[in-house]
Amino acid sequence: MIRDFWVKNYLSIGDKQELSFVAKGPASELVSEVAEDVFLYKLAILYGSNASGKSNMLIAMNEVFRLMVMPKSNATKKILGYIPFALTSDKPTEMHVSFFAEGIRYDYDVTFNGNYILKEILNYYPKKAKSLFYERTFVEDKVQADIKFGPSLKLQIKTQDSIRENTLNNHSVLSVCNKAAFKEDIEPFNILSNWIMSNCHDVDGDGEKEKGIVDILNEAYADNKKRKFFNQMLCKADLNIVEYKPTIEDRTVSQEFRERIKQENIPDNMKEALLKTTVESITFLNHSKNGTFEIPLRLQSKGTMKYVRILNTLYDMVTGSHVYYLDELGEDLHYDLLFYYLNVFLFNSDKSQLIITSQETALLSQDLINENRGVVWFVEKNKETASSEYARGDSFGLHKNLSLYNSYRIGRLGAKPELGSIFIDMED
C-alpha cells in the first residue's frame, strides 16, 4: 500500500503536489493497519472538473513504479515516462513514493529527464529503522553511474560490480534484476521487484480495457474460486444474471473478405484468427418469476460490460494485496451499484488500496465518506500557473457537522468548473 506520493514537473503538475494516505488510527473499514501502529487509507477518491488533472496523478503514481522495475535494452532508449509540465519542459521530473510491501516500508525518490535517471535513492525499514537500499547519481553520458549499496543488503563485492555494469543511465538500479541473471545474494532486489510487478497495476488494470470481456470471463470460469466470485457478484448486482458459461458461436466469413485477408501481409496466426468460422463467446443465464432464459453477450448492456471489467480488479483486491488505479469509476454504472462495489472492496479487503477519479459527487453525502474526509481529494487548475493543485478533504477546516457534499456543491471546496453564459453569440 502507498503511504504517500509526490510529483513535480509532470504532465499538468508544475509545482510539487502530494497525496498522503496516512490515517490517524483504525477509525473505520476505510483504514488498514499495514504495520504496527501504521494506519493507511485503503481508498482515495479524486474529484475535479474535466481537464483539472485528476487522471494525471494516477498516471504519475503508476509511472514511478514502472520506472523502478522496467529496464532498458540499450542506453539510447528514451525514458518515455518523461512528460514534463509544458512551462518547465527544460527541467527534470521529480517523484517520491513511500509504500509498504510485505509489511516493510520503502521510500523511493527519483529525478529524471528524457535520457537519464539523474538521481535515485531507495531506503527501506527492514527492522523498523531506516536503512539504505541503494543510492545512485548520474555522472555523465556513456559513463557508469555512481551507485552505493546499503550494508544491510549484504551484497558481495562482485555482485555490486555486476549490478553497476548492468545499470544503464536510462533505467533504475532495481530494474537490473529483470534484465540480467544474478546469484542468490541479490534476493532483496528480486523480492521487491517481484512484489511491484505482481501487486502494483497500470491505470485501469494492466490493459483490462484492451482485454476482451470474453477473455476476462473465460479466465474466471477456469478458476473455481474466481468463477464463484463472479457469479455471486453478478447475481448480487441485480442484473437478473444467475450465472454464465463459455459458448462457441458461428461466424459468417464472406468469400470476398476471405480472399482479401489471404492477400494481406500479416502473420499466419492472425490470418487464421480472422478467417475462423466460429468465435468464442459468453452466454448469461437470466432469471425471472416465469423461468430462466439465456442471453448472449452481444445483447448485454454497456453498464453490465463495464461492471464485468472491474470485477477482475475487485477479485484481486479482496483476495490479495494490490494497488489499483481506476479512472472515472462510476461511468456507465448506476450510483447504487458503484457504492455497493466500493463497500464490497472496503469490507472484504485487508491490505489492498484503490485510488480512483470520479464525477459521482453523491458519494460525498455518504456517512462513510463524510466521516473519513482524508480519503477525498479535490483537484483544480491554478489560473495563474495552469498547474494542477490537490487538496485533501480534511484540510479545509470544515466542522464535522457540515456536509462535505453540500460544501463541495456550493463551491466552498473549489475543484468545480466555472462555466460561462448559456447564450451563444453567433454574430460577426
What do these coordinates show?
It is a single chain. With 428 residues, the protein is α+β, with helices and mostly antiparallel strands. It folds into two domains: 1-204 and 327-417, Rossmann fold (3-Layer(aba) Sandwich); 213-317, no CATH class. Helix content is 28%, strand content 27%. It is built from eleven helices and 18 strands. It has helices at 54-69, 157-166, 187-199, 213-221, 224-236, 255-263, 268-275, 302-319, 335-348, 367-370, 404-409; strands at 2-8, 17-20, 31-35, 38-41, 43-48, 93-101, 104-112, 117-124, 131-137, 146-149, 200-203, 241-250, 278-288, 291-296, 323-326, 353-357, 376-381, 388-392. The strands form four sheets. A seven-stranded antiparallel β-sheet has the order 2-1-6-7-8-9-10, with helices on one face. Strands 11-15-16-5-17-18 form a six-stranded mixed β-sheet. The protein has a three-stranded antiparallel β-sheet with strand order 12-13-14. Helix 4 (213-221) crosses helix 8 (302-319) and helix 5 packs across helix 8. The radius of gyration is 25 Å and the shape is globular. The mean pLDDT is 92.
CATH architecture call of the largest domain: 3-Layer(aba) Sandwich
According to DSSP, the number of beta strands is 18
**CATH class category name of the largest domain:** Alpha Beta
Helix/strand order: EEEEEHEEEEEHHEHHEHHEEHEHEHEEH
Q: How many DSSP H or I helices?
A: 11
Features of the shown structure:
428 residues; alpha+beta; Rossmann fold; seven-stranded antiparallel β-sheet; six-stranded mixed β-sheet; 11 helices; 18 strands
